[in-house]
Structure formats: structure tokens, C-alpha cells
Design goal:
heterodimer, A: 569 residues, 2 domains, two-stranded antiparallel ribbon, B: 33 residues, mainly alpha, 79% helix, rod-shaped
Chain lengths: 569, 33
């Protein structure tokens, strides 16, 4: 990276941290620290979007589109529906109760133990997720920038801790605006530059992407084992989003900062309008990078650190042979792609089909060559990471985009990491204080004491996230790791809330036992997924855990309630 | 401050935007495949 890139990167991060601290300087009371300062709807909308957009979104998503096409977008189809349900059901109740955290609602509706259980489930799940939110970009950024992993974790973690601890919810929401501006500005600029760099017209690029199965945006075929299709997006994902936006304090805290019920609702509606187009842009950029690499030879493996290791190993000659074979394969495939474009122009459907098959065959052959390279990497270093999709986008940025833009796109990734981590730490600190410390440990202290303890809890969760990030391992795909972690717990939490909202006759004990059983069931299903459980073969996409967990709580609670004694309710 | 927003209209617009996007994306999928 050039000096100007470093200046842009550090300048952006430094300014945001300083701005967050400066805007929230001076004395603050507990209410202001936990609830923010009467935001308008667009601030709330941006804050909700910035919270959900983690660095993983900008690293994994283009890579996922590069490898797997755009079908991931179907996951977000359920989001606008979830926004409407939340806006009608959840938010008015939260406003009426004037609560700090979502879990406070559960004590009034059920009892203390149900509130504590939901808060604990949240703390476990979100505490680990905060670690992954820092770790995910750190792995890639440390490799690209040549920094150590632990240093990168500390760099991101400390930057966030400074303003989140100092200014609380208000600091989180004021910095989200700047971070969203950097993120969207950077991505749109990258998209425009990539399209301009293509040696073919935009329509031709779309034909190349479409004929190579990368514009597979919508699939109406129903398949339970398929993670992303229209049906999983419209059903299972709705449950995930209801749970994430309705019961996850890192999101609930964003819209509870609203000036009024109307502003909070409009913030969610804004998210409903903009989220799918935003994901479309990010995925589309990944597809355009894919098209670019059909005309300019891509690296055989996108993580440079791994290929450099191989070049210095005893396998370097084997690696060279594979690289030559890969280059030849690329040239042959490139000729076919040019012929394909001719066939498209001539509207010769038979020739198009013939070339599509030919290109698919050559793509498979190239993938086989890549697999052989990965085998060599493992032979050389059994612990070598052989997945490189998360590196695709930033490797492209570093190799092809101009100076200055590179720094800006690194700033995008850092901003994204900071925006989601700050919401997480803010929510973890609030929930620890309000639902556990203030409610069950030290009940009669002054507001000043709780303000200070909120700051301490926020800082401690930040330190925990940095330590977890420094010891956790790389998962199959980072974005999926976070969604999976969420899906293991979200269904149960959502089930408790839905029983609370809609099943008025069910009381505390029944829902508490139902939640414990449902959580055990989900963990059992996940453990046995891909094999047999009670003689039944299980193969389900993890998104369905949300549905199963939620319905299990609702059904079990309804069945258990008649057996609970009248006294205990 | 009373809320005079026509929420049915707002939600209707949101659903409409979703349906239009899905149709557009399906069209893109089919046309370029």
C-alpha cells in the first residue's frame, strides 16, 4: 500500500474515533448512556444497517458471489416482512413498557428466571459473535497488510472500546452515520471502477456472468437442504430476522434510541427498503470481479501468504507445473468465452448451449487444478487454510484498483468491523448491567454506580472479544459461522418472545422449561445434522434451526401449561 | 405529538418494493442464463 492509502485508512479510523468521543463528551446520565438521544428515523435506519453490516459482509459476500453466484440474496427476502411484523407487534410494546433492554419485557410477562435465561442466551451468543466480528476481518487484513493477527484484533477492538465506553449508545449511533457513508461510498466507487475496467460492455458482462451461473439470483425450487432459495428466504429467514431485529439487544438498542414510536418504526421500514438493494450491490460487485477474472488471469489461489509459502517449499516445482496448467486452462476458457459472446450476438442458441457446456467443463478442470494446489498446501503445512473466497475481493482491490481507493476500501472493512462491534459491545454492556447486575446482584445502588458499571461491562466485553478473537479458529466461511451461531440460539429466544406476545395463557414455568428443552433439541439436531437421530436421517440447512427452535418453544409451552399448578402460573 | 402516518400505505409500499425486486431479479436470472 502507498502512503496515501495509509493516510486515508488511519485518517478515517482516527477521525471516527475522535468524533465519537467528542460528540458525547461531558457528563451523561444512565438513561442517556443506555438509550441514546432521541434519534430521528434516518439515523436509526442507518444505525440498524451499520450494525448488521459487519466486515464479514464486505469480505465474504463478494467472495461468495465470485464462487457461488448471487443466490445468497434470497436470504434477505424475508427481511422487509420481518420489519413489518416488528413494527406492528414488538416496538409498540417496548415503547409502552419504557424498557432499556428487550429482556426486561420478559420479567413483566413471565418471571425473573425467564428474563435471566433469555439475557444469558443473548450474552453467550452475542459475546462469542463479537469475537468473530473482530476475528473475521483480522485474519484477512493481517494477511493482506502483513500485521500480526493479535495486533489487528487489538487495533480494531481498542478503537471501538474507546468511543463505545466513553459515549455509550449515543457514540455508537453518531459514528454509525460516518461509517455507513464510508462503507457505501467505498463500495459504490469500487463497483463503478470495476465495471469501467471490464474489457467488454456491461451487457456482455451480464451474459458472461449469467451463462456461467453467477446470476442465479432467484430459485423457486423447494429444497430443505438448500440454504438459499426463495422459500427459505421467505420463511426460515423471516424467523431469523424477527429474532435478530426483535430480540437481539444489539439491534433493539438501536431503535429504542428513537424520538418517538413513529421514528423507530420508520427506521425499521428504511432498513426494509434498503437492505436488499445494498446486498445486491455487494454481491453484484463480486460477480463483476468474477467476470473481470474471465478476461485477466486470476491468481491460482487468492491468499498470497499461502502461495508464497508453497513457492519456498520442496513442492515448488509441482506448484509451478500446476500453475502452468492453470494458465493454459485459463487461455482455452477465455477463447470459449469470446466465442460465447459472438454466439450471443448472433443469437445462435445451439452454439450458446454448446459453449456453456464447454466452459463449465473447463471451469471444473481449473477447479481440479486448484484442488491439487490446495492438496500441496496441506502436504506442506497440515494446518494451511485452503479456503480463499474471503480473500477474493481485497486481493482484487490490491492488485488492480488505483492508489487511494485501496486505502478507502480497507477503511470500508475497518469501519464495518467497528460499526457492528460497537453495537455488540454496547448491547452486551447494557444487558449485563440492566438484566443481571442491577436486577439480581446489586439492586440498590445509585444511578452513577450503574453508569460506571455499564462502562466497565462494555470495556470487559470488548477485552473478552479481543481475547476470544485471538484464540478462535477459522470457520468454514465467516459469514456463515456468524449466522450459524445466531441460528443455534435465536429460535429459542424468539419462541419465548412470541409466546409472550401471542399466547397470553402461557406463564413463566411452562415457557422456561419449553425453552430449555427446545435449546437442547436444537443443539442435538446440530450435533447429529448430516447423520441419523432416533433413526431419522437429518439433513437440514441451519436457517431452519430458527423455525424449529421457535416452534418447539411455542408448542412445548402450550402443551406444558395445563400441567403447571395454578398457584405457580 | 400524534402519529398521522398512514402505516398501511407504508407497509404496502414495502411489500410492493419487495415483489418488484423479486420479479426483477427473477427476470435477470432467466434472461441472462
Amino acid at each position: 500500500m502507498s502512503t496515501i492509502d495509509w493516510v486515508i485508512l488511519f485518517g478515517t479510523i482516527f477521525l471516527i474515533v475522535i468524533y465519537g468521543v467528542y460528540k458525547t463528551r461531558g457528563s451523561q446520565d444512565l438513561e442517556g448512556y443506555l438509550k441514546g438521544s432521541n434519534d430521528n428515523w434516518w439515523t436509526i435506519g442507518l444505525s440498524i444497517m451499520a450494525t448488521q453490516a459487519s466486515a464479514i459482509t464486505f469480505l465474504s459476500t463478494p467472495g461468495q458471489a465470485y464462487a457461488d453466484g448471487m443466490r445468497f440474496i434470497q436470504f434477505y427476502f424475508g427481511l422487509p416482512i420481518a420489519m413489518i411484523i416488528l413494527s406492528i407487534t414488538f416496538i409498540p410494546i417496548y415503547y409502552k413498557l419504557k424498557i432499556y433492554t428487550a429482556y426486561e419485557f420478559l420479567e413483566g410477562r413471565f418471571d425473573l428466571k425467564t428474563r435471566t435465561l433469555a439475557a444469558l442466551l443473548f450474552l453467550v451468543q452475542r459475546g462469542l459473535a463479537a469475537g468473530i466480528t473482530i476475528l473475521a476481518p483480522s485474519i484477512i487484513l493481517s494477511s493482506l497488510l502483513g500485521w500480526s493477527l493479535v495486533f489487528t484484533n487489538i487495533f480494531i477492538g481498542v478503537a471501538v472500546i474507546i468511543y463505545t465506553v466513553s459515549g455509550g449508545t449515543k457514540a455508537v449511533s453518531v459514528t454509525h452515520k460516518q461509517q455507513m457513508a464510508v462503507m457505501m461510498g467505498g463500495m459504490v466507487l469500487a463497483g463503478i471502477l470495476i465495471i469501467n475496467m471490464l474489457p467488454v460492455t456491461f451487457t456482455e458482462a451480464l451474459h458472461v456472468a449469467g451463462k456461467m451461473d453467477k446470476l442465479n439470483i432467484v430459485n423457486f425450487e423447494f429444497d430443505l437442504s438448500d440454504r438459499y432459495n426463495f422459500w427459505s428466504g421467505m420463511t426460515a429467514a423471516v424467523f431469523l430476522f424477527l429474532s435478530y431485529f426483535g430480540t437481539d439487544q444489539s439491534q433493539v438498542q438501536r431503535y429504542l434510541t428513537g424520538k418517538s414510536l413513529r421514528e423507530s418504526r420508520m427506521g425499521l421500514v428504511m432498513n426494509g427498503f434498503l437492505k436488499i438493494p445494498m446486498q445486491f450491490i455487494i454481491l453484484f460487485i463480486g460477480v463483476m470481479v468474477f467476470v473481470f477474472y474471465q478476461f485477466y488471469q486470476p491468481p491460482i489461489f487468492f491468499n498470497k501468504v499461502q502461495t508464497e509459502k508453497l513457492e519456498q517449499s520442496e513442492y515448488r516445482e509441482d506448484f509451478q507445473v500446476l500453475q502452468e496448467s492453470y494458465s493454459q486452462g485459463f487461455e482455452a476458457k477465455n477463447k470459449d468465452i469470446l466465442s460465447l459472446l459472438e454466439a450471443v450476438k448472433a443469437q445462435d442458441q445451439d452454439r450458446i448451449n454448446e459453449l456453456k457446456e464447454e466452459i463449465a467443463l473447463k471451469t471444473d478442470q481449473q477447479e481440479q487444478t486448484r484442488d491439487e494446489v490446495k492438496d500441496l498446501m496441506v502436504k506442506n503445512d497440515p494446518l494451511a487454510e485452503t479456503r480463499d473466497t474471503d480473500y477474493v475481493f481485497m486481493r482484487f482491490v490490491m492488485d488492480y484498483l488505483p492508489q487511494g481507493v485501496i486505502g478507502l476500501l480497507f477503511a470500508v472493512i475497518f469501519c464495518a468491523a467497528m460499526s457492528s462491534t460497537s453495537s455488540e459491545l454496547n448491547a452486551l454492556g447494557s444487558t449485563s448491567t440492566v438484566d443481571l447486575y442491577k436486577r439480581s446482584i446489586k439492586k440498590q445502588e445509585s444511578p452513577g454506580h450503574y453508569l460506571l458499571s455499564s462502562k466497565w461491562f462494555t470495556a470487559l466485553w470488548g477485552i473478552f472479544a479481543i481475547i476470544f478473537a485471538s484464540y478462535a479458529m477459522l470457520f468454514e466461511n465467516l459469514i456463515q459461522a456468524v449466522n450459524l451461531l445466531g441460528s443455534l440460539f435465536y429460535g429459542t429466544i424468539l419462541g419465548i418472545f412470541l409466546v409472550g406476545f401471542y399466547m397470553k395463557w402461557v406463564r413463566g414455568n411452562a415457557v422456561f422449561i419449553a425453552a430449555l428443552v427446545a435449546e437442547a433439541l436444537i443443539l442435538l439436531i446440530h450435533w447429529k445434522n448430516g447423520s441419523e437421530l432416533f433413526g431419522i436421517s437429518i439433513n437440514i440447512g441451519y436457517l431452519w434451526y430458527n423455525v424449529i427452535g421457535c416452534l418447539a418453544v411455542m408448542v412445548l409451552a402450550a402443551l406444558l401449561q395445563p400441567f403447571m399448578s395454578a398457584k405457580n402460573t | 405529538m400524534s402519529d398521522t402516518t398512514n402505516w398501511k400505505k407504508v407497509y404496502g409500499m414495502l411489500i410492493l418494493a419487495l415483489v418488484v425486486q423479486i420479479m426483477l431479479y427473477y427476470g435477470l436470472t432467466q434472461y441472462f442464463s
